[in-house]
Amino acid sequence: MQLKAQTKWGWMIAAYLFLAGLGAGAYVTGVIADFAGAEWASVSKIGVALGFPCVLLGTAFLIADLGTPANFWRAYRKPGTSWVARGTIIISVFMVVGFIHIGLWLWPFGVLEDAAGARQFIGVVGAIFAFGTMMYTGILLGANRPIAFWSTALVPVLFLVSALSTGIMAVMLIATIDGAAHSGPISTLVRIDVVLLVLEIVVVAMYLQATHRVPESRAAARLVLAGSVAPLFWLGVALLGLAVPLALELLGYYVLDGSSATTVIASISGIIGGLCLRQVVLSGGIQAPLRAGRFEFAIPNT
Amino acid sequence: MPRYGFVIDLKRCYGCYSCQVSCKAANFTPRGIDWAQCVPAETGSFPTALRQMLPLVCQQCKEPACKEVCPTGATTQDENGIVLVDKNLCMGCKACIMACPYGARQTVGDWQTYFPDAEGELDPYEAYAKKQWEKKNGYGMATKCDYCKDRVAEGRKPACVESCPAKARTFGDLEDPESEVSMLIRREYGFQLNPEFGTDPACFYLPPR
C-alpha cells in the first residue's frame, strides 16, 4: 500500500509558517535587546522593525491560500473554538501591538524614544503574543489527529526554536549589512544563535526519532529521509539550515575573530533553511490509513 | 430524533463504483469531487492474496473532527446528526480537509468541465448540473456528502444506496433498535472505521471475509 502525502497545504502555507515565525522571533530578539542597555539600541530597533512587516507578509500568504480570500474575516466569527480561530486572534493582537510599537517608536512618531518604561511595557506585551505566534504555527499542524507526523508535541517546539533562530539571524543580517561591527551585540547574538542551532539539531533528531510508532509517521519519515522530500531535507534543512550556519558562526567567532562575511552568509543560509524546514514538515503530512480486517486503505484526494 | 446512519457490507461490495457515479449524478458534483468513493486495497501474497474494496461516504460523526477545527462556525450538525457546511460562512482554510480521518471533505477551485476537448459553451446538461451545484455549494469552499438529505426528506433513499447492485449498502436510523441498520450492526459485528480518532462515526461496516 502506497500512502500519499497531503497536497492541500502547499508552499504558501510553508511561507506563512516561516514568515510568522521569523517575524515573531525577530521581534522577541528586539524586545529582549531593549532591556540590555544602550549599545543594543540599534539591534533592538531592527528586531522590532522586522516583526510586524514579516508577520503581515506571512498572513498575506495565508489569506492568498484560502479558497475564498475575500472572506478571510470570517475567521474572527468564532474566537476560541478552534486553533485556526485562536491563532487568528493571537496573530492579530501581535500585529496590532507590533504596529503600535513601530509607529510610536521608529516611524512616523518618536514619542517612545525617551520613554523606555512605556516602550518596554509594549514590548513585553508584544513578546507574549510573539511567543504565541511562534508556538501556534506548530499547534495548528498538531491539531490534525489523522496526520501522525504533525500531531506530536515536538512540532511546536521545533517551530519555536527555528523561529527564534531565524529571527536572530534576520536581525544579525540586517544589522551587519547596516554596518554594525562584529563585536559587542552581534557577537553575543552569534553565540546565542549557535546554542539555538545545536538545540534545533537535537529537536529535529528527536522529532524524526519519534516517528517510529505508527505506519503513517514511519512512511512520512521515509519520505523525508529517503523519499521524494529527501533532497529538500538534506540540502535545505540539514545543510543550509543547520550545518552551514553552525560551521560559519563557529568559524567566524573562534577562528576569524569576528567576520562580517561569515555572519551574512550564515544568516542567509539559515533563513533559507527555516523556510525549507516548514516545507519539509508540510510535505510529510501523511494521513492514517483506514483499517478494516486485515486490509489498510489509503485515503485518496487529500 | 433519528440519527441517520449507513451499514456497508464489505463482503457484498465488489467494487463496481456505482455509488461513486450515482452520487455524481444525484448531487451534480464537478470533476475532482467524489463524495462517495471506492478505494481498493490488497493484502497477503500469492497464492493467498486478497483484494477488497472500501466504499467511503462522509461518516457523519457524532464528534466530528472537521467541526472541531472549523474556525468560522460554517460546520454544523442538524437534528438528524448530519454534518453540514454553510457556504455563506466557509472561507476555505482547508483545516477540515486536513483533520477529517476519512477523506470526506473536498474542495474545488472552479467548475471543471467533464469534456475538456469540447469547444465553446458547456453542454446543456452540464450547464444545468453546474447551476444545481452552485445553488448549494461554493467554489474554494469545503464540500461534503450530506447523506442525500433532500432525497431522504422526500422519503427516498440516498442515491448510492438505491444504485448499489450488490445491495451492500443499508441506510436507516441508528437510534431505533428495530431498524435494519441497527439489527445488521448487532447481528453481523458492525464496526466503525478507525475508532482511535474518537469521532464516533454513523457509518458502520460489516467485516470483509
Query: In terms of per-residue confidence, which ranges of chain B show pLDDT below 50 for 5 or more consecutive residues?
Result: none
At the first level of CATH, what is the class of chain A?
Mainly Alpha
| Number of spatially distinct domains of chain B | 1
Instruction: Report the CATH superfamily of chain A.
Output: Formate dehydrogenase/DMSO reductase domain
Structure description:
The complex is a heterodimer of chains A (302) and B (209). Chain A is an all-alpha fold and 302 residues long. Chain A has a single domain (11-297), classed as Formate dehydrogenase/DMSO reductase domain (Formate dehydrogenase/DMSO reductase fold, Up-down Bundle), CATH 1.20.1630.10. Chain A is 69% helix and 2% strand. Chain A contains nine helices and two strands, in the order αααααααααββ. Chain A has helices spanning 11-34, 41-65, 83-105, 116-142, 154-177, 185-209, 215-225, 230-255, 260-283; strands at residues 290-292, 295-297. Chain A has a two-stranded antiparallel ribbon with strand order 1-2. In chain A, α1 (11-34) runs antiparallel to α2, α1 runs antiparallel to α4 (116-142) and α2 (41-65) packs across α5 (154-177). The longest helix of chain A is centred in the middle third of the chain and has 27 residues, at 116-142. The radius of gyration of chain A is 20 Å and the shape is globular. Chain B is an alpha+beta fold. Chain B has one domain: Alpha-Beta Plaits (2-Layer Sandwich). Chain B has seven helices and seven strands; from the N terminus they run βαββαββααααβαβ. Chain B starts with a strand and ends with a strand. Chains A and B meet through α3, β1 and β2 of A and β2, β3, α2 and α3 of B.
Primary descriptors:
heterodimer; A: 302 residues; mainly alpha; Formate dehydrogenase/DMSO reductase fold; two-stranded antiparallel sheet; 2 strands; 69% helix; B: 209 residues; alpha+beta; Alpha-Beta Plaits; three-stranded mixed beta sheet; two-stranded antiparallel ribbon; 7 helices; 24% helix
